[in-house]
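**User:** Once you have settled down, spend some time on the protein underneath, comparing sequence with structure tokens, and judge whether sequence predicts the tokens.
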Amino acid sequence: GYDRMDPQISPTAAPLGPIRAEDEIRVWTPNEGNQSMLESVYNAHLLAWDNDPVLDYFLKSAAASGRMIERGTRTACSAHPGGVRLYTTASEQSSVVTMPYPSCKVPIVPALLNGFLGLLFTQTRTWVRMARLLYMCDHLDRLKDQMAKEHGEYIYVWTCCTTPSLQNRGLCNRLLTKACADADTKGLWMYLEATSVDNRRLYLRHGFTDWQTLKYVEDMPPMQLMKRAPKVLSTE
């Protein structure tokens, strides 16, 4: 999904210094966490979208981008509290949110129209761009369904984010490594959308490959759809 990760950190590089207690990895579902834990995750999503090329194209401010992703994450967690997986640091300030697709499908356009109308009307840069945003979201839903037809149930990486004050410490990198390892254990494909060159580069290092590029008009930044085949695990 939309992302604000730690592009300067290679997934094969050693962590920057010792892993602190608050940076230890936790894996849980919304119905396993308390409200305080969930609010910390939502707040990190709210703050992390300060420079996303695709969202910046559609929305007037980083605050509007953060609000849209935060609300979308709340919607997914509320709709599938037992299916959505949250990979977080112990402080919940960095997270990777995944869900099995299509069993935990949350159609984007109905969600936008039901819970985001005020945000769309007040924060979209122009009416034309709002129409493009809705078209893009509908197209993404159809492409995710196509992915399921080709590969069966897969893991959809909805978001990767870190609170700005903790970025560039390789936190999302460690969380994504764990999420990929879990998908490999289950023999499942993975899918995500990369919205920047740096994040695409990081995803490539994690084994994701380019699938399709979405760019509807000349002035729109491209969105790279990527997927990852499960690695064959040794049985020795």
In short: Confidence is low (pLDDT under 50) at residues 2-17. The CA atoms of residues 103 and 153 lie 8 Å apart.
